[in-house]
Amino acid sequence: MKKTALITGATSGIGAATAREFAKHDIQLILCGRRQERLDALQKELHHNVPIYTLNFDVGDRKAVKKAISSLPQDFEKIDILINNAGNAHGLDPIQDGNIDDWDAMMHSNVNGLLYVSKTIIPQMVQRNAGHIINIGSSAGREVYPKGNVYCASKHAVAALTEGMRIDLNPYGIKVSAINPGLVETEFSQVRFKGDAIADNVYKGFKALQAQDIAEIIYFAVSRPSHVTIADLLVFPTAQANSVTIQKSSS
Ligand code: NDP
Ligand code: 8X3
After folding, report:
1. pLDDT of the residue at 103
2. DSSP label at residue 227
3. SS3 251
4. DSSP state, 34?
5. Ligand 1 binding pocket includes 59 (Cβ within 6 Å)
6. DSSP state string for 87-142
């Protein structure tokens, strides 16, 4: 029987690449995001490979999360793999100049969203004594960089929640993993800098990680034998040594 994965943030970047990777490996998909037209396009692209269901909701809206997930049809109700990927950075400002709406947006999606979606799905995993939760953290969850303050805090929270989940869900045989990328070339910087030209420079002068690189790592994690859990993985582009040390060409 096919496994079912629910992927948040499937409309773009890492989430969309993971959907494509899972479809190659016959994992049926529940694709989530706020942009329905993108969910429809991905469903159209992948539905020849595997059954697909789409859910349009904001992960940080707890009522919407519950309503969406409880609306799943029977064939998609049993969720084997949860990919908590939805999230973004908003702004890059010293704490004294930070925009409170940006702070709220990051905590809303990156922390509350991950909690609300997990809270809705964990009970069925506990009941079955099985399941795999993968939280997409970040190198920003390992170290704080200048002006990263609240985004880094949100990803440190993801790191703590991943550990907490792994401990609490240990008696039920549920796997909990954190995949922590460095710089990945997606729409992330467009969102962070609100479409400002500065976003175009973030991935210039070096080869950044691609969404597909992370998707392959996520598939590797979910395809390990039942006795193996990838607990916590940090991945950088080769040009990056930490959040602030990046070998860029001058051109
Ligand atoms: P993208 O901007 O390309 O994708 C972000 C995804 O998250 C979109 O599908 C968006 O969907 C979804 N999303 C954001 N907020 C919400 C929300 N409130 N409710 C529902 N969906 C939401 O960025 P990435 O693919 O790069 O980011 C994916 C994850 O990877 C994030 O958690 C990010 O923090 C993390 N990450 C990214 C890195 C990078 O350098 N790019 C490095 C390390 C970690 P929609 O707008 O349609 O709702
Ligand atoms: C994304 C990587 O360095 O922009 O989580 O915070 S970084």
Report:
1. 98
2. T
3. coil
4. S
5. yes
6. --------GGG--HHHHHHHIIIIIIIHHHHHHHHHHHHHHHT--EEEEE--GGGT
Q: Give CA 154 to chain center in angstroms.
A: 13
**Rounded Cα gap, residues 199 and 88, in angstroms:** 14
CB 194 within 8 A of CB 210: no
Q: Is the pLDDT of residue 250 over 90?
A: no
- Predicted confidence (pLDDT) per residue in 177-219, tens digit: 999 999 999 999 999 999 899 999 999 999 999 999 999 999 9
Q: Inter-axis angle of helices 149-168 and 114-128, to 10 degrees?
A: 10
**Interval between CA 183 and ligand 2 midpoint (Å):** 6
* Partners of residue 54 on adjacent β-strands: 31
14 Cβ inside 6 Å of ligand 1: yes
Residue 4 tokens, joined = 């079912």
Q: How far is the CA of 140 from the centre of ligand 2 (A)?
A: 6
Q: In the block, which residue shows the tokens 């070096």?
A: 206
What values do phi and psi take at 233, rounded to 5? -125, 130
* Separation of alpha carbons 145 and 50, rounded Å: 41
How far apart are alpha carbons 204 and 73 in whole angstroms?
A: 44
Neighbours of 153 (CB within 10 A): 17
3-class secondary structure, 206:
coil
* Cβ–Cβ < 8 Å for 142, 244: no
Task: Give the Å distance between the CA of 74 and the centre of ligand 2.
Answer: 38
What's the chain's average pLDDT?
Answer: 98
Are 239 and 248 in contact by the 8 Å Cβ rule? The answer is: yes
Distance between CA atoms of 77 and 34, rounded to whole angstroms? Answer: 20
Q: What is the pLDDT of residue 1?
A: 87
